[in-house]
Amino acid sequence: MNKPIDAALLQPAEAFTDYLKNTAARIDKVAEAKAQEDGARVGISRPHESAHLHVAGEATYIDDIPELAGTLHCALGLSPVANGRLTSVSLDAIRAMPGVVDVLTANDIPGTNDCGSIVHDDPILCAIEKHDDGSSWGDIRYIGQPVFAVIAETRDAARRAAARAKDALIIEAVPPVLTPQDAHARGQYVVPPIHVIRETNDGGARGAIDRAPHKLKATLDVGGQEQFYLEGQISYAIPKEGGAMHVYCSTQHPSEMQHLVAHALHLHANEVHVECRRMGGGFGGKESQSAIFACVASVAAHKLQRPVKLRLDRDDDFMITGRRHCFWYEYEVGYDDEGRVLGVEITMVSRAGHSADLSGPVMTRALCHFDNAYWLPDVAMHGFSGKTNTQSNTAFRGFGGPQGAIAIENILDTVARKLERDPLDVRRINFYGKTENNVTPYKQVVTDNIIHELVAQLEESSDYRARRAEIAGFNLKSEVLKRGIALAPLKFGISFNVKHFNQAGALVHVYTDGSILVNHGGTEMGQGLNTKVAQVVAHELGVNCESVRATATDTTKVANTSATAASTGADLNGKAAQDAARQIRERLAVCAAARHGGDAKDVRFANDKVEVNGRTLSFATVVGEAYLDRVQLWSDGFYATPGLSWDKEKMEGRPFFYFAYGAAVSEVIVDTLTGEWKLLRADILHDAGRSLNPAIDIGQIEGAFIQGMGWLTTEELVWHPQSGKLTTHAPSTYKIPTANDCPPVFNVKLFEGDNFEDSIHRSKAVGEPPLLLPFSVFFAIRDAVSAVADHKVDPPLRSPATSEAILAAITAVQA
Ligand code: MTE
Ligand code: LUZ
Ligand code: MOS
Predict the structure, then answer these.
(1) For the chain, which residues make up each domain, given as ranges?
(2) pLDDT score of 17
(3) Angle at Cα 560 formed by Cα 558 and Cα 564, nearest 5°?
(4) Closest residue by Cα to residue 655 from 641, 644, 642, 647
(5) Mean pLDDT over all residues of the chain?
(6) Does the Cβ of 701 fall within 6 Å of ligand 1?
(7) Please, what is the angle between helix 451-461 and helix 464-477, to 10°?
(8) CA distance 671 to 669
């Protein structure tokens, strides 16, 4: 009986190597070569623009920038207490330590002591202030909160000195509030509660649940997730003449960093210059939370008038910054005999941490994704962002969307088990219709629904039905090892759920030799944005991609940019760059027609050639002629997503330009004695519209799938229940997936179909939506666990489904 898992099943490394070799096979190379010959530069699988630099170790990250003479290094002194009052800070001993140049506190900040992105409730350094009752103290909110900054000759000296924080701080401690449930019970939130309610029938959700033939009431826990970008948070601030500041910052949001540094230094925005060539990953973790480091480095550089670098150690990164919100849900659902949801009421409580950060918009997106791909006639949703004595949670790939959607998926999975139906059938019966039953709870009409055909294709290509039958046969004979399978669909709204963020700018320069430089407001974090934008520019000007170079995101080039987030990087900046390139092309056409005859409208640009009035000239020749004719060879471009609206009071409107869709089938095997499991096979069909770059999009899908699988399985965050210290603050205790966790059979395909909306070349955003695909892994594990009791008991599996959680669910099912 106690048979170990087949070693071959647990050793996918070789299979993974084979899979990598075959990656190219999934791209239609013939069709792409033909398109390229015809002049297309989009829809082509090109390598990441920096791939050769990444693999050679030559790509410059902030810490690789040659340091200026006189550069100092910073480390932060952190609170060892989760909740309390800071009454005294004694820094003399730290100042006297070797190599220490200065120790800064909140008093050294010349401007505002705040780095909050939307709500101004985020102090840069904890300040002792006079309170109404005459007492003086600083508000200590979590273990890891920065209280002071050590500036030293070396990074090592700074870190050694900062580590003495415990001896320097006197804090009157009180017990911390750590869980969302605890915060909810106390009614303490970082932003007011958010409600989305839609009543189609009498009595709304409540009435529908009461009248339904079946009812279900339950709770669910879903854990948070650390971004674990490989390049940690870092800023390098360099004082400039006249009090100005230049900051190299690993950030998804250079413009916000510019503004927050300006406020902290009491400068104008035009005196602060923020630059970022690339990040070694952001994943949402550098959307707002790069700010504290940019501000501290700048304050120090400003005071000492020397360059100051602040690069976090990994443990400090865990202790200081927030991550994906964990959610706790309590729901009641009414459904019919076939599993159709008639009414549902849900309360979601997130662990927001000590400040608002982006928790409000994250909760809004969670509520706007609870429907996922399903028509919910009567629904009442209540979102609470619990204020806790933990790091301030923030954006993470999906931005609350995954947390919202997993709740309805869990509900439908449970409904299917109660009715003893295949969960796929219950999911399908609830899908949005194409022409009716197609309005979301926030009243946006789903006009681009392709979930029916997408899921049908995947069901067939993955051989879902036959494999389910085969697995049932296997499980009958196998007592210890149980296999499970699940299909999970997704629908994900694309656009920032804050309307005015949906804008972008770009700058395109054509030099007289015909080479081109593009600069736009988006940031490169490995997702391939610069590659895609360069392709768009090359396509527009009819040149080879090699002629187009993208440069660092820079607040002095394109102003007032939005964060590169909400998966909108290519949608927004691609359109802005296209706008700029098109203007230059039109000017070149007018100039070429004037010189060579014919109509400017008929001038063709493709494959580095320009056809004008029956003649074929090189692109560089036409550019050279235009220069001599004094034609402007550079242009700005701008884009604002059309058609968006949002009524914040009613929580309704059209927050999303369009939806992206996808689905995955996963099969797992679980050892029911140890809780160990393995993903055996995953089949993915994902909608990237008419892909700008299939290779990069497939890479995004694979990465998101594996990253999301980590969230739902091995990545567990544990705060000590008394002290409130995050105990899982390094890779030794926090387990992210590796290449070996990829399934030996991993079929990833792009769904064929254009974006219905006029997006950039009819493509769709791809950064975040595929993070929902690994729901299929979680529900496959659930399926395997429920096989233990012959699918008669719905397994109470929490997320992350660690081996420990799986064993607990098995025990509960057996009881
Ligand atoms: N891919 C890589 N390699 N690194 C990243 O940090 N971030 C993700 C996604 N893919 C990320 C990534 C997140 S959270 C978002 S919002 C999008 O990329 C942002 O880029 P885009 O809008 O250009 O897709
Ligand atoms: N909304 C959203 C946001 O949908 N995604 C984001 O990343 C975001 N960031 C800030 C504010 N709203
Ligand atoms: Mo992504 S979470 O929108 O940075």
Answers:
(1) 1-38+449-493+658-815, 40-62+503-640, 70-174+233-311, 176-225+322-442
(2) 57
(3) 85
(4) 644
(5) 96
(6) no
(7) 50
(8) 7
CATH value of 40-62+503-640 in 3.30.360.10, 2.10.109.10, 3.30.365.10, 1.10.150.170: 3.30.365.10
Tell me how far apart the alpha carbons of residues 236 and 67 are, in angstroms, rounded to a whole number. 9
Specify the CATH architecture of the domain 176-225+322-442. 2-Layer Sandwich (3.30)
pLDDT of residue 14: 57
Q: Measured in angstroms, how far is the CA atom of residue 740 from the centroid of ligand 1?
A: 22
In this prediction, residue 636 carries a pLDDT of 98
Residue 20 has what pLDDT? 56
Q: What's the pLDDT score for residue 27?
A: 87
> Between 254-265 and 291-304, two packed helices, what is the crossing angle to 10 degrees?
40
pLDDT of residue 815: 87
Backbone angles phi, psi at 6, to 5 degrees: -50, 120
C-beta separation of 810 from 698 below 8 A? no
* Radius of gyration in angstroms for the set of CA atoms belonging to the chain, rounded to a whole number: 27
Q: Are strands 84-89 and 169-173 parallel, antiparallel or unpaired?
A: antiparallel
Q: Which residues of 696-708 are buried (b: 16+ CB within 10 A; e: fewer)?
A: bbbbbbbbbbbbb
* Domain 70-174+233-311: CATH architecture, name and number where available: Alpha-Beta Complex (3.90)
Give the strands of the sheet with 658-671, arranged side by side.
Answer: 481-494, 658-671, 677-686, 745-750
Three-state DSSP class for residue 119: coil
The answer to whether 479 is a known catalytic residue is no
pLDDT < 70 regions, the chain:
1-25
> What backbone phi and psi angles, to 5 degrees, belong to 326?
-75, 150
Residue 395 Cβ < 6 Å to ligand 2: yes
Type and span of the H or E element at 519: strand 516-520
Among the residues of 139-243, which ranges form H helices? 155-162, 165-168, 180-186, 204-211
Pick the CATH number of 1-38+449-493+658-815 from 3.40.50.150, 3.30.365.10, 1.10.10.10, 2.30.30.60: 3.30.365.10
Please report the pLDDT score of residue 413 as a whole number: 98
CA 399 / ligand 2 centre spacing (Å) = 7
Tokens of 576: 């802005």
Does 566 contact ligand 3 (Cβ within 6 A)? yes
Q: Are 769 and 397 in contact (CB under 8 A)?
A: no
What pLDDT sits at residue 616?
Answer: 98
How far away, in angstroms, is 497 Cα from ligand 2 center?
A: 6
Q: If we measure between CA atoms, which residue out of 668, 666, 679, 671 comes closest to residue 740?
A: 679
665 neighbors 464 (Cβ within 8 angstroms): yes
677-686 and 194-198 beta bridge pairing: unpaired
Q: At 288, list the tokens.
A: 């707002």
Q: Please name the residues in contact with 733: beta carbons below 8 A apart, sequence gap of 6 or more.
A: 718, 727
Q: Scan for tokens 């170790």, then name that residue.
A: 57
Domain 40-62+503-640 and domain 70-174+233-311 have a common topology: no
574 residue type, one letter: G
Any ligand 3 atom below 6 A from CB of 568 = no
281 lines ligand 1 (CB under 6 A): yes
- CA 769 to chain CA centroid, Å, is 9
Is residue 213 within 8 A of residue 337, CB to CB? The reply is yes
Residue pair 780/583 in contact (Cβ under 8 Å)? The answer is no
Q: Could you identify the atom of ligand 1 that is nearest to the CA of residue 282?
A: 6
Residues 6+ apart with CB under 8 A from 180: 326, 327, 328, 349, 350, 351, 384, 386, 388
Q: Count Cα atoms within 13 angstroms, Cβ side, for 652.
A: 11
- Residue identified by tokens 């000239």 is 617
Angle at the Cα of 433 (from 430 to 436), degrees rounded to 5? 120
Nearest CA to ligand 3 atom 4: 284
Query: Could you give the count of Cα atoms lying within 13 Å of 129 in the half-sphere of its Cβ?
Result: 10
Computed from CA positions of residues 85, 87, 91, 94, in that sequence, does the dihedral angle turn out positive or negative?
A: negative
